[in-house]
Amino acid sequence: MLEVKRIPYSKLQKWxxxxxxxxxWLTITTFTVWIFSFYFxxxxxxxxxxxxxxxxxxxxxxxxxxxxxxxxxxxxxxxxRRYPFIIFGTVPLLIIEILLWxxxxxxHFIIFIYLLIMLFCFDMFYTMLEVPFDSLFPELFISxxxxxxxxTLRQIFSLIGILFAFILPGILIEDxxxxxxxxxxxxxxxxxxxxxLIIMLKWAPKEKEEFKLDHKHAMNFFQEIKYTFxxxxxxxxxxxxVLHEYILQLLATIxxxxxxxxxxxxxTFLISVFFVIYFISATISMAIWMKxxxxxxxxxxxxxxxxxxxxxxLPFLFITSYIIALIFSALMGVGFGGMLYTVWLLIxxxxxxxxxxxxxxxxxxxxxxxxxxIRFSIIxxxxxxxxxxxxxxxxxxxxxxxxxxxLGNRILFVFFPGxxxxxxxxxxxxxxxxxxRVEENKIxxxxxxxxxxxxxxxxxx
Length: 461
Hints:
14 helices; mainly alpha; Growth Hormone, Chain: A; globular; 0% strand
């Protein structure tokens, strides 16, 4: 029997890989938060066109995301099976990040077509970055201790990326109607993302050797999809993840309008401060959530974070003071930090459990399907906003909406997330991967991976 030795990852490798999450979240947050404000407020595209564009986009997602995930499970190159997608998707993605903000200012239909094309292109290249990158997390970091350590780092970097997505526009856009500011912000974002990804690709750890032969035992695309949706843990996780992302997208999109029209603060810098307080609080809370997760498990920790987050949203039904809103924004951030921290540990546990059943690592197809549903959460948030704003008579942007718009923003800020969180708790109750089962899986995986390494070294000798 071959002797199996494992060289621990260095701090540089862990930090470099985790820093990639900064680029991922800066890119997607800039897109999801500001794309609606730009086309609705700055460009003046009616909300109906925006809603239709996003709904058509969802059809493309149904094929694009799982397919790229599946392909990243199947290919084999000297650079691994994940990194080539990241490398070849980065430059086109950054070009689209700039083109998003310079639509032809002719008629509404032409702008609608341009937006639709940009959505298709953005999603394809962003998926080439995000799905393989997220697939690397459960694949590279297996043990509970190492996974918690790196997850803490990656979530801190993700929160820093989110912060940048609000701080930069606060400086560069100045006013929500300023089209040129969005374009400049797009250029700045593209440059920062490029630097971050170069650092990640330069020093991040290589893919593990024990999975080099997994592609030989993989199912075809449609079998993969069918088998994945038979996984009860994954189905429940997917519902929870969609709702988690729905809350994130919904609040990120309407918060600028809530601050302006409910709290009466029109300065984009003050909007950015609101987000900064929220995400700094989430970042600081990570240390608490990590200790709690190790002690009571991801399932229980996620439940506590959900309940705390919802309780902290309730005052936004009545708040009129910007300062009071900042206080509760910080408290909401603590709950958000817990949800963000644990949700990615849950999917990693699902993938580990699946490997014990199938014998192969299938991160790509799991992340591809998950990525599709992330986009669906964006659609759901836009539809929710469209329905509420249309109901209160705010179908096109006007500088001085009436009191009904204030009520609409309060409903979107509290009631819609509350419903999503309630459904999440129900799913979590039936979610089978408890702390005890996860620990048992780790023991079985250690034996399986030892066998895989021996097989790889024998066949590729």
